[in-house]
């Protein structure tokens, strides 16, 4: 089949048109998480924020920016894939002149959702790479200014969060203007007085910071995530840190030993008090027991005394009653039998008493010559008995 020249021209024209459509299509696609700056053939520009296909126009030029640009400054083995700018760690100086040889951080910058600001950004930087590099430079300056606000000892002694906050504040609001003040301080390790310099942010009369603004604030680019991921001190700082840790360890051990000694002393004191309490309790118990026993004995004695008194009172009453009966009988006159009985008992009693007495043949007073003598009282007793006997006989 013979192909004519006309057919060849038509085919060639079709291919060229298809290539032109492919290369200079009036349609474009904006991916999710990106925005596109579109420049038409006339030079007019607009921003496409929504994802999907849209009409860009023939021979238009598109420049794509991520919604969030990530600046990562870290060791190479820590590099992530979805970042906009990467660099090796930087070196920052502390206020005391020492250095952090390696400082790493990560900042996510959110671009504005505003046509005017986004077009201004594109006009100044023309593509995402230049914008990310500029944000990286600004981040580096803010990091250096933040490290100058404190010395290394203050940083490793608890100032890490303070440093991170100063870094984040400057990224968002602008850079500090630093004022330097000289002062004398005592080294925590050697105890020597050394000259040091304190850097503080300059402030307004109302206390607010005086800040140097940058394109970040002008274009409303916001750091929505900030993290300091690496601070590697130089050797002299590490030596100071080691000495401080050793000193802190010694202080902690000394404090623990003091606490232990105090606890042991307190325990010994409590044991002593316990022993005293035990002895005191034993003595108190013995005392109480003795008091109870004495009270019981006193009560028994009182009871016995009362009983003896009762018996005495009873005997006295019985004696009085008997005497009264005898008196009444005497007054009324005894019967011959009763009188004889009384006399009988009396004589028997007197006789019994006389039998007990040794009647002396001779009564001699003195005894100077060693002779035996009777007791004069025996003679008196004999007389009394004899007198009783005589009275009884007279009564008969």
Description:
The structure is a single chain. The chain has 396 residues and is of the alpha+beta class. Among the domains are: 16-64, no CATH class; 67-233, 2-Layer Sandwich (Tetrahydropterin Synthase, Chain A), CATH 3.30.479.30; 337-396. Helix content is 54%, strand content 21%. The strands form five sheets. Strands 6, 7, 8, 9 and 14 form a five-stranded mixed beta sheet that branches. A three-stranded antiparallel beta sheet has the order 3-2-5, with helices on one face. Strands 1-4 form a two-stranded antiparallel sheet. Strand 2 (34-39) and strand 3 form a beta hairpin. The longest helix is centred in the last third of the chain and has 98 residues, at 235-332. Mean pLDDT is 82; it is low at 361-374.
Oligomeric status? single chain
Radius of gyration: 66 Å
CATH architecture of one domain, by name, is 2-Layer Sandwich
Q: How many individual β-strands?
A: 14
Order of helices and strands: HEEEEEEEEEHHHEEEEHEHHH
Q: What do the pLDDT scores average to?
A: 82
Low-confidence stretches: 361-374
Q: Could you name the CATH topology of one domain?
A: Tetrahydropterin Synthase, Chain A
What's the N-to-C terminus distance?
Answer: 210 Å
Biggest β-sheet: count, sense, barrel? 5 strands, mixed
| SSE class | alpha+beta
Question: CATH homologous superfamily name of one domain?
Answer: Band 7 domain
Annotation field: number of helices = 8
Give the C-level CATH assignment of one domain: Alpha Beta
Q: What percentage of amino acids are in beta strands?
A: 15-25%
State the share of residues found in helices, binned by percent.
40-55%
Protein name: Band 7 domain-containing protein
